[in-house]
């Protein structure tokens, strides 16, 4: 069942969860009926494989939005219907069942369970772990270590408190569910009574007695969950997380994008061993828990699970054929390094770049031609779906652990490591994936990583000798630069999520153009060709130049600065040339930021660019109309008649006085602020306007006339 199909999907989840025979599952576990447990859990997994449990607050907001829409359209007036009440009642009961089911299964997987039954239990926990309100037993040290051990991340033992059957534990769960049903019936009879709501909360707390609490609490008394459970009033799982900021909530109706695309094909993989499938299921649960709970992220750091994860990844990379678990190892590592910055630093210190570079090399099946040159076979098959998914995760992790290296001066060892990585990244830019969307995503993450690496290590991109069919500039191979330019053009045409998707490639091209003359010459040829047609504004049209110039006046400051910087560098940071190609109106933002509004022809003094002294030669077409080009708009304007034609000198003087008076009024009312450019090229408030004006701001025309008469008499 897909939650995107209709708006009633959430209700069906809440109502459908009531059909789960939780008591039957508990009885089967208690009696050791493995077949019964497996059958019931498989039914649950099949029914809710693609369902997600949503936050009640989100549903309430959705309901309010619908209500306001109905009122606005005068469709109906609001009344709390029985169906609305039933929806919330069903969710309360469904939440209680999910909480109890999670507690039971976490205890169950710590017992000596057979592989096939353990796998189906983990799959159920994976579905339940999408709901932040049932995470309490999964984020304890025992819960995390149990999952980590099943995932192969650690061999650390957990407490053996559940090694023997505990009939009291299961009996208490069953008794609490029965009492909750009785309470629900009473609540229906006394609906609207304030005491009924309080009783309902207390009864929900009674669902977890002391024996249950001892099972799901953490081993050491200093942990936060142990404190939460302490006291005569035993807080329920729901209450414990309701007031907590530890968890994130999946968006309503949104597919779990953390799932591998490969997983959408089916749950059973051919040739997958039982141990491998078990590890994969445990890894999926860990991914959900770490993503949804900041407390789990902290405990993962404290329990040093990253070390075990690194060892597992190193082993899988060195094997001849990677297992299907590797994707989830990479996904968990990405989540940990993205959500815990100290773990990102730790991974970098412990050789994470080398390990992940080797994983990248394995996915691409790299063959080396030279120290920093990979063999690029044009006839090679596209990158497979499975390999492309692993590649994306590796690139994201590498970005997490190297993003602070951009402005640092690497030592010789690090520089060699980064150049080795850049040589492989060049292959990522040039290779194609099975799906075009994956190709675009692969190039996007490659660009992000390249922008995070030290700039001096990117010269590897240009070190490949040119071939007869290669793109070239001044004798240098530009195939990689051409791929970057094509990628930027696609992003410009798409116009989707401009800041997120476009600023990295703009920054990368700007930095490389500033550092490499050949790159700048090649990109300028494609973006800023010599001017021939100046009948249109520079921002008009569908060329890369027009699109970039339009971005120079974008509402987002980062976007417009990135676009302007690239054009400015392509103009060798020459103000006159920059205005020539973009028009003064479009260029004003960057010039004001850099203090260049004075229009100096020289380059900015603190620029790091190494530019040649070659001049910008004008085309014959441009020279013929150069005097008719409006420097503000950047285009050749149609000649217009003189607006003062036919006016006498007295009329011209009166018009000038009227304009000055209007400017003074606007200035005194702070509607406009007259500005001027100082000697440094920066905008400053214009002083002396009132003193030099022919008419005062506060004067009336009658006063002016009177003064004029007095002057004549004198």
TrEMBL record:
Subcellular compartments: Cytoplasm, Cell cortex
Sequence segments annotated as region (Disordered): 246-275, 634-653, 679-714
Domain of life of the organism encoding this protein: Eukaryota
Name of this chain's protein: Synembryn
Gene that encodes it: si:dkey-94f20.4
Organism: Scophthalmus maximus
Coarse class of the protein's main subcellular location: cytoplasm
Keywords: Chaperone, Cytoplasm, Guanine-nucleotide releasing factor
InterPro entries reported for this sequence: ARM-like, ARM-type_fold, Chaperone_Ric-8_A/B, Gua_nucleotide_exch_fac_Ric8
Biased segments, Basic and acidic residues type: 248-264
Biased composition annotated in UniProt, kind: Acidic residues: 265-275, 639-653, 702-714
General function of this protein: Chaperone that specifically binds and folds nascent G alpha proteins prior to G protein heterotrimer formation. Also acts as a guanine nucleotide exchange factor (GEF) for G alpha proteins by stimulating exchange of bound GDP for free GTP.
MF-aspect GO terms: G-protein alpha-subunit binding; guanyl-nucleotide exchange factor activity
């Amino acid at each position: 069942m897909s939650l995107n199909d209709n708006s009633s999907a959430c209700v069906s989840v809440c109502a459908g969860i009531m059909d789960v025979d939780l008591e039957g599952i508990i009885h089967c576990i208690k009696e050791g009926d493995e077949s019964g447990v497996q059958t019931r859990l498989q039914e649950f997994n099949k029914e809710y494989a693609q369902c997600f449990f949503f936050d009640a607050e989100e549903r309430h907001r959705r309901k309010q939005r619908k209500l306001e829409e109905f009122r606005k359209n005068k469709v109906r007036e609001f009344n709390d219907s029985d169906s609305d009440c039933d929806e919330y009642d069903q969710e309360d009961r469904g939440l209680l069942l999910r909480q109890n089911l999670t507690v039971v299964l976490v205890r169950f997987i710590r017992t000596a369970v057979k592989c096939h039954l353990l796998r189906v239990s983990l799959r159920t926990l994976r579905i339940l772990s999408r709901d932040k309100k049932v995470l309490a037993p999964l984020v304890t040290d025992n819960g995390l270590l149990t999952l980590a051990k099943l995932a192969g991340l650690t061999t650390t033992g957990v407490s053996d408190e559940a090694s023997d059957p505990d009939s009291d534990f299961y009996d208490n769960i069953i008794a609490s569910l029965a009492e909750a049903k009785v309470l629900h019936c009473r609540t229906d009879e006394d609906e609207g009574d304030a005491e009924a709501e309080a009783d309902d909360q207390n009864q929900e707390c009674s669902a977890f007695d002391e024996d249950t609490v001892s099972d799901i609490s953490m081993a050491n008394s200093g942990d936060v969950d142990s404190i939460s459970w302490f006291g005569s009033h035993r807080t329920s799982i729901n209450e414990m997380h309701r007031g907590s900021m530890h968890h994130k909530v999946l968006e309503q109706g949104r597919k779990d994008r953390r799932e591998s695309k490969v997983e959408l094909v089916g749950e059973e993989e051919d040739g997958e061993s039982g141990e491998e499938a078990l590890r994969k299921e445990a890894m999926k649960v860990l991914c959900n828990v770490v993503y949804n709970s900041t407390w789990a992220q902290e405990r993962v750091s404290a329990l040093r699970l990253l070390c075990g994860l690194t060892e597992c990844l190193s082993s899988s990379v060195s094997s001849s054929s990677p297992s299907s678990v590797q994707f989830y190892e990479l996904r968990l590592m990405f989540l940990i390094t993205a959500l815990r910055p100290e773990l990102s630093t730790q991974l970098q210190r412990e050789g994470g770049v080398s390990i992940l570079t080797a994983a990248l090399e394995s996915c691409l099946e790299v063959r080396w031609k030279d120290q920093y040159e990979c063999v690029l076979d044009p006839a090679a098959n596209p990158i497979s779906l499975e390999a492309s998914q692993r590649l994306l995760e590796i690139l994201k992790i590498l970005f997490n652990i190297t993003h602070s290296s951009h402005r640092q001066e690497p030592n010789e060892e690090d520089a060699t490591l980064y150049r080795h990585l850049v040589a492989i990244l060049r292959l990522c830019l040039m290779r194609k994936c099975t799906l075009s969307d994956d190709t675009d995503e692969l190039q996007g993450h490659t660009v992000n990583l390249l922008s995070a690496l030290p700039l001096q290590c990117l010269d590897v991109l240009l070190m490949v000798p040119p071939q007869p069919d290669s793109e070239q500039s001044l004798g240098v191979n530009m195939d990689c630069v051409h791929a970057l330019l094509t990628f930027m053009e696609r992003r410009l045409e798409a116009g989707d999520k401009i800041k997120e998707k476009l600023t990295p490639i703009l920054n990368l091209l700007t930095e490389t153009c500033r550092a490499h003359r050949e790159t700048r010459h090649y990109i300028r040829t494609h973006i800023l060709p010599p001017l021939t047609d100046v009948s249109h504004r520079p921002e008009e049209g569908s060329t890369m130049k027009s699109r970039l110039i339009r971005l120079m006046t974008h509402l987002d400051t980062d976007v417009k600065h990135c676009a302007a910087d690239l054009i400015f560098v392509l103009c060798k940071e020459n103000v006159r040339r920059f205005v020539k190609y973009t028009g003064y109106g479009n260029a004003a933002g960057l010039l004001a930021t850099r203090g260049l509004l004075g229009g100096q022809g020289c380059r900015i003094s603190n620029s790091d660019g190494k530019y040649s002294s070659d001049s910008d030669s004008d085309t014959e077409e441009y020279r013929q109309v150069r005097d008719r080009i409006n420097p503000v708009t950047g285009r050749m304007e149609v000649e217009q008649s003189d607006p003062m034609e036919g006016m006498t000198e007295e009329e011209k003087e009166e018009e000038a006085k009227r304009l000055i008076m209007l400017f003074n009024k606007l200035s005194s009312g702070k509607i406009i602020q007259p500005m001027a450019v100082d000697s440094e090229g920066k905008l400053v408030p214009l002083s002396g306007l009132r003193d030099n004006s022919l008419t005062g701001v506060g004067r009336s025309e009658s006063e002016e006339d009177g003064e004029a008469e007095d002057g004549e008499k004198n």
